[in-house]
Amino acid sequence: MDTLAARFKLFVLPFLSISLLFLPFLQATDFDYCDNKGNYVVKVDGVDISPNPVISGKPATFTISASTGQAITGGKAVIDVYFFGFHIHQETHDLCEETSCPITVGNFVLSHNQVLPGFTPPGSYKLKMTLSGAGIKQLTCISFDFKISFGASESSVSDS
């Protein structure tokens, strides 16, 4: 029995430990660059949405991990939203409100918080985000799909 326990410790425990390292990547949202041939200053490493799916009427956070080989002093983030292929919304934010500026060479994180109106229809959406900087027309451009679901109504929660 001791050899079976030793084998378990030698093979299974390290495998489980390594698997746990990849767990955060399994929850990341897939994204595409707007132009695969684009030589963007900002390279996106990952997109995380919390909660996923987004719940209408509740706060959601879109977090984008990225890196740059060039310092960025400021700019803007333009967010376009599509529902069933139709452009339904656009908003523009100061880049320095979404991350700390100046952005130094290396890794950084953009974080955008949004509360969608409670009447937002559930379904599949596409978000396109374009970052531009001072003197640089396009730092990067990505798109990704996300889902919106209805939240639990207040009346469905009963007091105990």
UniProtKB/TrEMBL annotation:
GO biological process: intracellular sterol transport
A Pfam cross-reference name: E1_DerP2_DerF2
Domain MD-2-related lipid-recognition residue range list: 31-146
Superkingdom of origin organism: Eukaryota
Secretion signal, residue range per the UniProt entry: 1-28
Swiss-Prot/TrEMBL keywords: Signal
CDD domains: PG-PI_TP
GO MF, any single term: sterol binding
InterPro entries tied to this protein: Ig_E-set (IPR014756), ML_dom (IPR003172), ML_PG-PI_TP (IPR033917), NPC2-like (IPR039670)
PANTHER family in alphabetical order: NIEMANN PICK TYPE C2 PROTEIN NPC2-RELATED, PHOSPHATIDYLGLYCEROL_PHOSPHATIDYLINOSITOL TRANSFER PROTEIN DDB_G0282179
Protein name: MD-2-related lipid-recognition domain-containing protein
The organism's taxonomic lineage, starting at the top: Eukaryota, Viridiplantae, Streptophyta, Embryophyta, Tracheophyta
